[in-house]
Amino acid sequence: MPSIDIIVPKAAPRLWQKIIVRRLQAAGYDISVSHGAEAAGWPATVNAALRLERRIFRRRDPGLGSRVPEIPVSFRNDAADLRLDLAGNAPSSEIPTITLRFDGSPFDIAVPTAVASGALPAIEAVLDGRSVMGRALPMVDRRESTALGVEDVLARAITLAVSVVRALVERRLPMGGPRPDSASNVTETDRGFAPAYLARALPRLGAETMRRLRFRHAHWRVGYRFVDGPGVAATCALGNGWSVLPDAGDHFYADPFAFRWHDRYFLFVEDYPHATRKAVISVVAFDSDGKPQAPRCVLEEPYHLSYPQVFERDGAIWMLPEASASGKLTLYRSGDFPDRWLPEAVLIHGEISDATLLEHGGRLWLFATSRDGYGSTSDTLVVFHAERLAGPWKPHPLNPVLIDRRMARPGGAFIRDESNRIFLPVQDGTLGYGGGLGLSELLELDEQTIRLTAPRPIDALGDWPYPKIHTFNRSSRLEVIDGIAAVRK
């Protein structure tokens, strides 16, 4: 295996840096560790604020930004093939060197400062100070918390560093010349942490605390309409004619999937009781007049279920719900449609969210997000492929395909238009989870290449009252969406 020198801070290294060393060692690389020149650590105000917030949010495990004991030095006699500078201040060398930049800064103190100010940091992996080898746009799930936001960003620093090292070693990235898309996101990191935290972070945290005293943390509502001809996918706009699936307020419906069977329409949803905080899958049948019947539970497990993608294949009806809390993706077969579902096979192990099926080029494909151990579940796209539904499913060599809060997480089944173009609804987390939805066109997909366009946003104008949407699906004439509502406790 190729040899890699990893440069870490001597004093006060951080957990995210230690995890990168550990993961590259576990991958079999010949790793040596050296200490970089001393640089200023995180100010005491940063450490104190993050510790306090983690206690408030009952996070007992150490954060990725927490200090760890000195990472021991290890040496080798010969020169390395690659250097990974996690200290941010390694001296220049003839050995190719990757440095992480946080909004253009080589030092990770830029992360808490940016998050406190309300910014969404970008991370770049830069080769020899000039060539951007990879970029990450991490999702920040809890915008009200600086500590949890720092966790989300540093989690993707780990993902980016490990994936770029692997891509360079496998010669999937060039070793020279600046890439034309090199850019850095500019934030207010020069203002310093304390002013940003006092002026922005604390008021943001206080406002969210007050909101949660009066309102549900999240309450989704599902919309449906029957349309002839072009709909949301063709117009990229919600338009009019939507009805809201009623709920009693003590639970919500989300992640709607429409399914037509024997000239009847069915709507499968995540059904989340606020009291249990664990969702089941329910079905809503429509009568001949298009009126929805009462939802009824059709699948419950000891863990949370959502995103109930239902489809027909090989003479059977299947469901592929999200169950990331179980650590596996399980395929279910319908035993008595629509009420009885039997586990058929575990397709993938890991914290996989919103796996979405596609048949293309003589193979089956699953697009999903992976938590990669830490951070958000909404910003890291992974793809798997197989020859048959039950597998075995193989990870794509480009995984993670991208780290991008704007388009990594699927938001509904793939769509084929009249020209046989393929589109994937994708969630846009720029404004937070459930902040919007777009359509990305799949330009190229095979066992070596994946290309998606930047998403075209779906315009929320129309009579749907909840513009923050994150799922869209259609089956024949039935279109379904969801949106987040402000519901008092």
CATH architecture designation of the largest domain: 5 Propeller
| Arithmetic mean of pLDDT | 93
In terms of quaternary structure, what is this?
A: single chain
**Number of individual domains:** 2
CATH class of the largest domain: Mainly Beta
Report the total helices.
6
| The CATH fourth-level homologous superfamily of the largest domain | Glycosyl hydrolase domain, family 43
Amino- and carboxy-terminal Cα gap: 57 Å
- How large is the radius of gyration? 24 Å
Number of strands: 30
User: Which class best fits the helix and strand makeup?
Assistant: alpha+beta
Shape: globular
Low-confidence stretches: 177-190
Strand content is 35-45%
Query: What kind of sheet is the major sheet?
Result: 11 strands, mixed
CATH topology of the largest domain: Tachylectin-2, Chain A
GO biological process, one term: xylan catabolic process
Keywords: Carbohydrate metabolism, Polysaccharide degradation, Xylan degradation
Protein name: Glucosamine inositolphosphorylceramide transferase 1 N-terminal domain-containing protein
InterPro entries: GINT1_N, Glyco_hydro_beta-prop_sf, Glycosyl_Hydrlase_43_Enz
How does this model look, in words?
The protein is of the alpha+beta class and 489 residues long. The protein has two domains: 3-213, Rossmann fold (3-Layer(aba) Sandwich); 216-484, Glycosyl hydrolase domain, family 43 (Tachylectin-2, Chain A). 17% of the residues lie in helices and 37% in strands. It contains six helices and 30 strands. It has helices at 15-26, 44-56, 110-116, 146-169, 193-214, 232-235; strands spanning 3-9, 30-36, 82-85, 97-102, 123-127, 131-137, 220-226, 237-239, 243-244, 251-261, 264-273, 280-285, 296-299, 306-313, 316-322, 328-336, 340-349, 352-360, 363-370, 380-386, 394-395, 402-404, 415-416, 422-427, 437-445, 450-452, 456-457, 459-462, 469-475, 478-484. The strands form six sheets. Strands 1, 2, 3, 4, 5, 6, 18, 19, 20, 21 and 22 form an eleven-stranded mixed β-sheet that branches. Strands 23, 24, 25, 26 and 27 form a five-stranded antiparallel β-sheet that branches. Strands 9-7-30-29 form a four-stranded antiparallel β-sheet, with no helix packed on it. A hairpin with a 5-residue loop joins β15 and β16 (328-336). The longest helix is centred in the first third of the chain and has 24 residues, at 146-169. The protein is globular. The N and C termini lie far apart (57 Å). Residues 177-190 have low confidence and may be disordered.
